[in-house]
Structure formats: C-alpha cells, structure tokens
Amino acid sequence: MVPAPVGEYFEAAPGGSPANVAVALARLGVPARLLARIADDMLGRRVRDHLTGNGVQLDHAVRATEQTTLAMVSVGPDGGASYDFRVAGTADWQWSADELDGALDGPVVALHSGSLALTMPPGAAALRELITKAADTATISYDPNCRPLLMGEPADVLAGVHELLAVADVVKVSNEDLEWLLPGTRPEQVVEDWLARGPAVVAITLGGDGVLAGTASGVRARRPGVPITVIDTVGAGDTFSAALLAGLHRRGLLGAANRPALRAVDADTLDTLLDEAALAAAITCSRRGADPPTADDLAAFR
C-alpha cells in the first residue's frame, strides 16, 4: 500500500523485494523466473497479473491458500521510504521443502534472494537449503534488505547474513541496512570484511552518494550517484540488484562455471556495471513506487 498522488490515501501496488527484482530483470531483457508463494485472493491475483504482464515466469510459483502480505509505505520529504507490515499467517514466507522441488530445473544461471524470505520461519530454512544447493551450478546473488520491524535482533540477523556470505557470489547491501546491522562501522570496512567471507563482488549503495564496491581479486571502486529528482526510493535497491545481474548476464559472467571470471572482473568492467546499476536505480527513484526501467529507458538516459 503506497501513498496516493493526492490526499492522505493509499493505493494498492504489487511489489515485494524479490518480485521487484524479477520485474526489473524482465524489463531489462533477462529471462526471469520467480519462486513465490502467491495468494489466491484478490490482491494475489493482482500480483500474478503484474508479474506475468511484465514477462516474469511463474511456472514454479505456488498458488497459496493463505492471504497476501501487506506492506504499508510512507514517504518522507526527501523521498525516503519507510515500511510497516501485516504478515501474520500470510502466504509468502511459509515455504516447505516439497514446494521447492524442481526450483532449479532448466537453464538457471543465477539465484537471487534476500529480505524477509531468508529470515522468517518456516520458509527461511527451506530457502537457505535451496541456495546452498544452487551454488553448485548457479551464481548466488544476495541482498539482506533489512526490515527491522520484523527481523528481530540485529546481532541474530547478522549471524544469518554471515552464513549466506559463505555461499553468495554477488552481494548488494544498502548503507541503511548497515546502520542497523553494524552501527558505527564504515562501509569500507564492511567491503573488506564481507569479501573475506567468500563473495566475488560486494556493493554498498549509499543513496545519493553513489556506491562503494570491491571484488575478490582486489579491485575497489567508488562511483558517484546519478543526479535526479527523487519521487520516492521504493524498489530502488531491488532495481540496483537486477541491473547489476543483467550487466553480468550480458557479459557472460553468470553461472558456477563462470565463477573464476566473475571473481577476476577488472576495474573498468566493475565501474561500468556499477554505473549501469546506479542509473537504473536512479530512474526508479524518479518514479512513484517500484517502477524499474526498461533497457530502452536506460539507453534514453545515456
């Protein structure tokens, strides 16, 4: 539920972090499948229509009997978004292992996850097991995407983050996440610590100040933000993750067989990847709600 353009009202908008990533990937021309438990209620059907209308494959989605989760969004004067949730007994986090059978069938070169899906039982355990299995064949992309209202104590969440860093290849985290997970820790320190735990690429988004990143081979980068009029930041981080994955996909750097090449990405390539992702995220910030750009939208801004 996002603020309506006029008045003190809300309007329903399909979303959710992994769904936003899938839509952004599809709009950028990357074949995307969403693993999701989608409710068979009015809002759930709207979510399905939104996803299929954007070309996201739902052949591995579960038609769940529980209700749709509601996230209520408020937007501050600077466009920054804050969230409140209604999740008790809802559909999306109640995965069982059986529901994920066959999730990796076909030419899957990358698996992206994060946010509430990896912190809320009972589904979190099943999804973490899937990620570990997927690492044998696919690139693992991870965004902690912290939601303090629902995730419990930061120290407990950080322990779970560290577990996933051991299998993740591409990690994106925001400075807001880090302020909650690791208060007082400089982003540069986080890049070094998290890379030492296993990933090939770690990128920290800094809002209007751009992005800080590093690779396992020792490349370090800091790229500026893209000046733009911010309407709201809903879906900006998800768009960044998707655009980063899309850039890696175009360069043939996804898939477990390409892990050595991903870990050895050079400075120019990393800069270009980060610039593309930052631009995509900025365009999303210039629009209401989670409305990521298409490949044509990106080309028009260059």
TrEMBL record:
GO terms for molecular function: kinase activity. PROSITE patterns: PFKB_KINASES_2. Pfam families: PfkB. Residues 8-293 form the Carbohydrate kinase PfkB domain. InterPro entries: Carboh/pur_kinase_PfkB_CS (IPR002173), PfkB_Carbo_kinase (IPR050306), PfkB_dom (IPR011611), Ribo/fructo_kinase (IPR002139), Ribokinase-like (IPR029056). Keywords: ATP-binding, Kinase, Nucleotide-binding, Transferase. The keyword Nucleotide-binding applies. CDD domains: bac_FRK. It comes from the Bacteria. Gene3D superfamilies: 3.40.1190.20. PANTHER family: HEXOKINASE FAMILY MEMBER, PSEUDOURIDINE KINASE-RELATED. Belongs to the carbohydrate kinase PfkB family. This is Carbohydrate kinase.
